[in-house]
Amino acid sequence: MLIKACWQGVSTIFLWVFLLLSTTLVAQEDSTAFRPQTYFGVQYGMNWNTVMFSPQIDQATLVANRIGAVFRYVGQAHLGIQLEVAYDQRGWAETLEGLATDYTREIDYLEFAAFSHISIGNGTVRPLVLLGSYLSYPIGQTETIPASLDASLYQDYYQELLPERLQYGLAGGLGLEVFLDRLTLQLDGRYRSSLGGIFSSSDNRFIFSNSQGFTAQASVLFRIFGGK
User: Fold this and answer.
1) How many angstroms separate the CA atoms of 63 and 59, rounded?
2) Alpha helix stretches (DSSP H) within the chain
3) Distance CA 16, CA 20 (A)
4) CA distances, 125 to each of 159, 176, 179 (Å)
5) pLDDT, tens only, 159-210
6) d(CA 139, CA 9)
């Protein structure tokens, strides 16, 4: 199952790359006015995470971090491809009746993402649209159990390491870009939804356990090749 999931995730990302690069190559043949641009930068964001469990679990939102590097190639005016490598924290927080603190399970991922990047307009400030997919591998996890929780109320997955399951899914967002000569500031908000579960589908405890979340993010990019 892990190999199949990995292949599906990698195939999705490579499909995005192939389609977008094909589009940019055709565009370059049709236009001599636009010079392709290459950017490299860094990004930081905050995640608001939940997990779609069935059977349902009462949850609060788990707030965590996302830190990464970004590469963007714009082969056609207003259309490019954006690749990201990030350290991404996700997971969930369970609300427990009668307790002031939540049970939390935070999962750290190494994420690879590919987006189509659509820029609107020609001004200094431009709206943008991101559409793409991601592939994530867990590299660590942290569990917090409230000290006041009676051990008889523990769920059977408490104090149990989660399986190291590859996560893959779809993501999209809206934002703004500010162009300052060779420097670009990108602010965006994104929604992502996993197509695979944190727990295996063969695990009888959950029918599905797909993560989802919103991210608010800022990126600073420097144009290293190409002109306006």
Assistant:
1) 12
2) 2-30
3) 6
4) 49, 7, 7
5) 999 999 999 999 999 999 999 999 999 999 999 999 999 999 888 899 999 9
6) 17
Helix (H) or strand (E) holding 205: none
- Extract the tokens encoding 26: 């055709």
Burial of 96 (0-12, 13-18, 19+ CB in 10 A): middle
Taking the CB of residue 150, how many other CB atoms lie within 10 A of it?
Answer: 7
- Strands (E) across the chain are located at 37-54, 59-60, 62-76, 79-94, 103-119, 125-144, 167-180, 183-197, 208-225
Residue 8 φ then ψ, to 5°: -65, -45
Q: What are phi and psi of 28, to 5 degrees?
A: -65, -30
- 95 in Cβ contact with 59 (< 8 Å): yes
Q: Which two tokens stand for residue 206?
A: 């959950």
In this structure, the dihedral spanned by the alpha carbons of residues 141, 16, 118 and 185, taken in order and rounded to 10 degrees, is 40
Q: How far is CA 32 from CA 19, 36, 138, 188, 223, in A?
A: 21, 10, 44, 30, 20
Question: Residue 223 and residue 37: Cα distance in Å, rounded?
Answer: 7
Question: In angstroms, rounded to a whole number, what is the distance separating the alpha carbons of residues 201 and 29?
Answer: 47
Within 8 A by CB and 6+ apart from 72, the residues are 37, 38, 39, 40, 41, 80, 81, 82, 83, 117, 221
Query: For 2-27, what is each residue's pLDDT tens digit?
Result: 445 445 554 555 555 555 555 544 44
Q: Report the pLDDT averaged over residues 65-85.
A: 96
